[in-house]
Write a structure and sequence with these properties.
Two copies of one chain form a homodimer. With 319 residues, chain A is an alpha/beta fold. Chain A is 47% helix and 15% strand. Chain A folds into two domains: 212 residues, 3-Layer(aba) Sandwich (Rossmann fold), CATH 3.40.50; 91 residues, Rossmann fold (3-Layer(aba) Sandwich), CATH 3.40.50.1100.
Chain lengths: 319, 319
């Protein structure tokens, strides 16, 4: 399904009653420190604490009564799970969420808190897909993929549209990239609503599939997977890669050390809570400062659902 | 010096160009959870990350050219130090800040970052006062007390004035209490700009001087001092107690466990960074929920200057 300008405008109208229009924050000391004019689109303040509600809600609201009857289902360790659980609660239908047993307890609790049924499985892709197939077979629920779904991508595209409306003379926008739902949506939003706006992505070195896929032109696996940015472990799909390779300017890699330094800056200077995955684009901008000096750079701060018990490992006590 | 309505209005005009008008946030899930209609005045987003810039800036701007010539001085382990350092930088004068050697490194660095001269002393009241007296004698700098100063109290009163303007039908406002600068300022602001607005304070059990002083009517020491709310270790002065006992409805005690639970709620639900001292009034409201059920309750979130390396002790990893 080809995503059009009109489809994004319709998605925006469709999901508007259910989501927040999140604020765009600026920070004088961060701008002085970096020489870059940053605009932070704060999706950590979004419903369910992340942008994923945009795509999840848009997909759920696209279903007809027959499709909705048996509920919706997905597999996700994180924010997409919460998004579908919240969407189902709002629509008064059932949600079945397959979550790997490695999921942070805070996220499992949040999903259950919205009334969804959680099915715990082993922490690998095959186990997730098997468990999901079983649930769909047994319940007849509609599967909504976390990113390989045009309705989800269309929903994610509404975020950059809002950012462009707030900062019409934006030069660059940078998002994180995991499965590519937000990045491909941002590519399309920029293309339709501000042609010429450059789109970059930040990716963790320890989940570097997108950078390789962009280079080879086909979906590649990450050489290894190990990063604190636990929202970005997934791999691009044919669909997201197709959009990304047509529109993205570049994908920039950052290390976990650089992610933690960026996290520290956001916590200390902006006084807001964000996930490690969420500061990856900010870390990428700082690392590649000469590319962005003097420019107006939008950063999509994608989410704020952190497990507080991990703080001690990110910022260890000084002995 | 008696603080008048006009003095607070003048302070507001005086400091306006130098401070932020901080946002007032609400949170649906916290309201549903508690049955209280909370309005959070976010001074963690204030210049220097805390309300203290209001009083510090007002005091500095009240000095004449002769008084300003030799700079300003104070002793403070925390946010008042940053406030005076920032005020001095803004006015192009010198600041001398006596800080106990127990001060968080992040705060010492921030004070030096504003160009102030830091004098480190032993971590007790006598050492602080001796070091300050020496600095004032040697430099001729003007001493600005963290709270026992009518210009500082007048500056702090501007915060509740803004909150009342945003939420005209507020029923209650709650602040933390340490030396009483913010609480006495809030008492006067409420008295002049919304008579009938009830003022409460939250105080840590491990620094419970204000609750005792309110009971006896004279300045008392805390029976013991041990709390994570490290911004509230100071003792009321005659001046702050005088105002507080005339206007405050009550002072409510909370334990460190209750403070950490409130901190967790603010981090997880509101996605903002605040200091432990800063959630003491919120913890007090939750603990005494029947007092505030169904009411519109303003919480002054006083600051967000945390030492990230302490996160691990507040939210220990689950073994």
């Amino acid at each position: 399904m080809k995503i059009t300008k009109e489809a994004i405008e319709l998605a925006e109208k469709t999901i508007k009653p259910y989501i927040h229009r999140t604020p765009v924050l600026t920070n004088k000391s961060i701008n002085e420190m970096t020489g870059i004019d940053f605009y932070f689109k704060c999706e950590n303040f979004q419903k369910i604490g992340a942008f994923k509600i945009r795509g999840g809600m848009n997909a759920a609201l696209s279903l007809n009564a027959t499709q909705l009857k048996n509920g919706i289902a997905t597999h996700s360790s994180g924010n997409h799970a919460q998004a579908l659980a919240y969407a189902a609660k709002t629509l008064g239908i059932k949600a079945y969420i397959v979550m790997p047993k490695s999921s942070p307890q805070v996220k499992v609790d949040a999903v259950r808190g919205y009334g969804a049924e959680v099915i715990i499985c082993e922490a690998n892709q095959a186990a997730r897909e098997t468990a999901l197939a079983k649930v769909v077979l047994e319940t007849g629920a509609e599967f909504i993929h976390p990113y390989d779904d045009y309705r989800v991508i269309t929903g994610q595209a509404t975020c950059v549209k809002e950012l462009i409306e707030e900062v019409p003379d934006l030069d660059v926008v940078i998002t994180p990239v995991g499965g590519g739902g937000l990045l491909s949506g941002t590519c399309l939003g920029a293309h339709f609503f501000k042609p010429g706006l450059k789109v970059y992505a930040g990716e963790p070195e320890g989940a570097a599939d997108a950078v390789l896929s962009l280079k080879s032109g086909k979906v590649e696996k990450a050489p290894y997977v190990a990063t604190i940015a636990d929202g970005l472990l997934t791999t691009l799909s044919e669909q997201t890669l197709g959009i990304i390779k047509e529109h993205v300017t570049d994908i920039l890699l950052v290390s976990d050390t650089e992610i933690i330094a960026a996290l520290k800056l956001v916590y200390e200077r902006m006084k807001i809570i964000v996930e490690p995955s969420c500061v990856v684009p900010f870390a990428a901008a700082i690392k590649n400062a000469p590319l962005f000096k003097g420019k107006k750079v939008g950063i999509i701060l994608s989410g704020g659902n952190v497990d507080l018990t991990k703080f001690g490992t990110w910022f260890p006590a000084i002995k």
